[in-house]
Amino acid sequence: MWQVRGSTGSLESASHLRYIDAGERVGATEPRALRDPNERGNDVTRAGVSFLLCVLLAAVFSGCDDGSSPGGREGGVVADQEIDNFTLTQTREGTPIWRLEAVHALVFEDAGRIEMTRLKAVFFQPDGSVRSTLRAREGVLHERTNSMEASGDVVVTAEDETTLETEFVTWSERTGTIETDRPVRVTRGRDVMTGTGLTAEPDLRNIRVLADFKAYIRTPEGDLIEED
Predict the structure, then answer these.
(1) Distance (Å, whole) CA 180 – CA 170
(2) Whole-number pLDDT of residue 58
(3) Least enclosed by CB within 10 Å: which of 21, 45, 162, 188?
(4) What distance in Å separates the CA atoms of residue 96 and residue 70, rounded to the nearest whole number?
(5) How far apart are CA 150 and CA 115, in angstroms?
(6) What is the pLDDT of residues 155-197, one digit of tens each?
(7) Do the Cβ atoms of 202 and 211 come closer than 8 Å?
(8) Between these two residues, 34 and 213, which has the higher pLDDT value?
(9) Is 65:75 a contact under the CB 8 Å cutoff?
(10) Where are the beta strands (DSSP E) in 28-176?
(11) 157 CB contacts (<8 Å, ≥6 apart)?
């Protein structure tokens, strides 16, 4: 079951992943005024000015709009909704499985895609206790597959304070694993390991570094000494 929260409300949807309008709609437009039927439609001067304005506005917007998501667009597609203080929780029989929080979210309903900025993802144990927390500058949730991408200063912190640091990760509810092909750094107490590429459970157990593996131990002075 999905629970979606926004800055102005809280609604709950059915389990079939249909997004329900919640929170704050941004950029709503006022109805367009009807034209006076008595107004002359063949005024050449007015038509010329209107045409010139249209050309100028088109030039301005084509130069300013780069299709980026902060403007409510993704690949030229305008978001259906923009939500501040976004929260989405996935539950099973009343117990939370994971929860997403973001300062800002763009919802693209047809694509089943939610883009988030300043993302926080919390993963839960079956008993409802926190398993780990992921933080990143940006994230994308694919609603149809319950898979997620997080990028930019990604830090995963497990309950035992083990941390994973990287620039990009993917997570899938189906596989239950966090994966990346980027350089990684994992710290557990005084032990530090680095490498390229990783698969792990959200609680950072059963970690597998895929390449360039190195292990270090941190001295009391804070220096790292590579282990044989």
Answers:
(1) 6
(2) 45
(3) 45
(4) 30
(5) 10
(6) 999 999 999 999 999 998 889 899 999 999 999 999 999 999 9
(7) no
(8) 213
(9) no
(10) 73-74, 77-78, 81-92, 95-108, 113-124, 130-142, 147-158, 163-172
(11) 132, 133, 135, 163
Question: For residues 53 and 48, what is the distance between their CA atoms, to the nearest angstrom?
Answer: 9
Integer angstrom CA distances of residue 99 from 5, 86, 111: 11, 11, 21
pLDDT 10s digits, 196-228: 999 999 999 889 999 999 999 999 888 899 987
Helix (H) or strand (E) holding 63: helix 44-64
* Best CA proximity match to 174, nearest among 98, 76, 84, 104: 98
Strand partners, 119: 102, 136
Residue type, 219: T
Q: Which of 160, 116, 158, 162 is nearest to 136 (CA)?
A: 116
Q: Which two tokens stand for residue 58?
A: 């088109």
Q: Residue 189: what pLDDT?
A: 93
CATH class of segment(s) 2-24+76-226 = mainly beta
**Does residue 75 register a pLDDT over 90?**
no
Domain boundaries, given as residue ranges, for the chain = 2-24+76-226
Query: At 47, phi and psi to the nearest 5?
Result: -65, -40
Asked if residues 79 and 108 have their Cβ atoms less than 8 Å apart, the reply is yes
- For residues 189 and 132, give the distance between their C-alpha atoms in angstroms, rounded to a whole number: 16
- DSSP strand pairing (113-124 vs 9-12): unpaired
Terminal-residue alpha carbon distance, the chain? 49
